[in-house]
Amino acid sequence: MPAISIDTFFACSLMVLLVLSAMAGASKLLYPHITNTIGENMGERYRETSKYILLNDGTPSNWGQNNQTIPEIFGLAKKNSNNPYELDIDKVSRLNSENVYAFSYAQMFTALKFSDVSLRIKMETFFDVAINLTAVFEASNETTYQFEILSRKYGVSVQTELRCYVIAESYFESYYVFASNGRSNLNITIPNDVDGPALLAVLARSTDDTQIVSFESYSLAHNSTEPQPGGAFLRLSPLNYSLTASFVYPETMLSNAYALTFDYSLTLTQTSISNDSATYDVANFLDFSPTLLIVTGWNSTNFFTEWTAYPQIPLETGADFADSMTLSDVYAYSYIVTINSVLYKCTIWLGGPRN
Q1: How many helices (H) and strands (E) does the chain have?
Q2: Are 285 and 264 spatial neighbours (Cβ–Cβ below 8 Å)?
Q3: Chain centroid to CA 5: how far?
Q4: Per-residue pLDDT tens digits for 162-197
Q5: Where are the domains of the chain?
Q6: Which residues, other chains included, contact 215 with Cβ-Cβ below 8 Å and sequence gap of 6+?
């Protein structure tokens, strides 16, 4: 499939967003009329329910920012937004089970206010980034790593520009790369006296629309044992422009913390620390980009890097429809949503009991 096909996909997606926006005003008023009656128009009822979740901010309207608040009525829209399908960064992040402030599906089900409707929500970027290590060149004082970075949507190349960051103990470097036809080669060189593991974090932005951004990371052993999987040392939970780093082990010592977007990078200021966690202020960047949050530290003699994205996407939460034998037909609805000016794909599945 030629590259123009993916450009056409993005253009059509944005046209769909405009059409949905035109219909949003009426949908925001539909909640009192979405009845609990199972009838012939079940598909339409579920569709309007899915739209209501994305177009309304819930009760209380600021429930996302307060980590102790469970919404009385479930809604993900940003408070006082004039843009339809603009979601709140913290309400979305609290859907991710990796966040210590996440609320459960049982709480979400109760706040939906429909005892006969089960739901599942998925949020994801518009395209995928794959990072492949292709070669390693060792010298006496430094090591060079060669990568192939691919940007793909449904297997089709997406032309992007890349911002790449390399983080290790007392080491930070950034690179800019243009990925023609969705493919680029990147060489990074790290001094051998730098302690590993090292993290390569990549933000990829579509050259056709700066609101379409994706990201990925790759951990390098570099002068250390093989890196542990994410979450082995810290549980990172962004909320209300603050990052909580919860310790998996009590003897954890933290080194540095960073906030990275496509155009900006910042070392975070630690605001508090206790025996089991630390917190950092997170800047609200004026940038069409998710923010990657990275924390480095030591567990005994092991150096580590942990990271997450803000908003905390990708995520998938809710009812498990895969093996359900008690539900009627399950309906799926996909939408283009914005969070801090970046476009994401949101899919909502809804289903009810069999008659």
Answers
A1: 4, 20
A2: yes
A3: 25
A4: 999 999 988 999 999 998 889 999 999 999 999 889
A5: 3-124+314-351, 128-310
A6: 125, 129, 201, 202, 203, 204, 290, 292, 309
Nearest to 255 by CA among 243, 265, 244, 267: 267
Which fold would CATH assign to domain 128-310? Immunoglobulin-like (2.60.40)
Give CA–CA dist 234/232, Å, rounded. Answer: 6
SS3 19: helix
Burial of 205 (0-12, 13-18, 19+ CB in 10 A): buried
Structure confidence at residue 37 (pLDDT)? 47
What gap in Å lies between CA 90 and CA 242, rounded to an integer? 10
Q: How many CB atoms lie within 10 A of CB 130?
A: 14
Mean pLDDT of 3-12: 50
Q: pTM for the full model? A: 0.89
Helix ranges (H only) for the chain are: 3-27, 42-55, 89-93, 105-112
* Confidence class for position 29, pLDDT limits 50, 70, 90: very low
